[in-house]
Design a protein that fits this description.
Blueprint (H helix, E strand, L loop, with lengths): L1 E2 L6 E2 L30 H38 L6 H15 L9 H23 L4 H24 L5 H28 L6 H34 L1
Antiparallel strand pairs: 1-2
Helix pairs in contact: 1-2, 2-3, 3-4, 4-5, 5-6
The chain binds zinc ion (ZN).
């Protein structure tokens, strides 16, 4: 049994530093062993991490509130109504929802926050559209925002999946990327030139498809090698 030279707390071999005062543990008779069982529940550390996250989120919220209120006030005092300030204020609100809001949750579900972020971006762009006018929102900005959100959620869900193997994940992400660039160019061409035409997106999609084939071949080779090893050694 070791004791902290500074505060006298009883220490396990699993501790490199005293958990109470942070002083390094040096006991030549019982050296530090990273694999030794820790006496503290793993959830205790999660609680500390969460507390730090919540404090950081609160400080960031206060910091963001300063420019948010300043621009709105400046606009209101100068013109007597809100006009240009809605754009920077909207950007700050969007940043808050994307970066700070998820920190307040115990176990943030990433895909849910990407979905929120997509809908918030769509709402912000709709605000801009109402403010500035034009015909760019429903046929271009909204579909591109939704397409990007769907693509990022698809990739996130796929990469976070515990069931799929790494090659399968990579293949599906490459296929999603190919579909994403093709639909993106279709939307751009439809909006700018009122036609459906593919060139750069086609090159990118073909490159994705070829990479997917390479991953498929390498994946099957690795699997075959593993099977041979199992037959030979077990
Ligand atoms: Zn100590």
């Amino acid at each position: 049994m070791s004791y902290c030279v500074n505060c006298g707390v009883e220490l396990n071999e699993s501790e490199r530093r005293c958990p109470l005062c942070g002083v390094e543990v040096i006991n030549p008779a019982k050296p530090y062993s990273p694999n030794a069982e820790r006496p503290f529940p793993a959830s205790a550390e999660n609680v500390t991490h969460r507390a730090v996250r919540v404090i950081a989120a609160k400080v960031l919220s206060l910091l963001l509130a300063i420019p948010f209120i300043s621009v709105l006030l400046a606009d209101l005092v100068k013109d007597g109504r809100l006009t240009w300030s809605l754009i920077p204020a909207g950007c700050i609100a969007l940043f808050f929802m994307a970066a700070v809001f998820p920190c307040l949750f115990r176990r943030p579900r990433v895909w849910l926050f990407i979905l929120f972020g997509t809908l918030e971006t769509a709402a912000f762009l709709f605000g801009l559209y109402m403010l500035l006018g034009g015909n760019w929102y429903f046929l271009f900005a909204l579909p591109v925002t939704l397409l990007t959100g769907a693509f990022v959620i698809g990739c996130q869900l796929m990469l976070g999946s515990k069931k799929a193997s790494l090659p399968l994940k990579m293949i599906i992400v490459l296929v999603l990327a190919a579909v994403f660039v093709l639909v993106l160019q279709m939307l751009i061409e439809l909006h700018l030139k009122s036609r459906i035409h593919f060139d750069w997106s086609l090159y990118a999609a073909v490159a994705c498809a070829m990479l997917a084939v390479v991953v498929l071949i390498v994946g099957s080779l690795i699997r075959k090698r593993e099977n041979v090893r199992k037959k030979l050694f077990f």
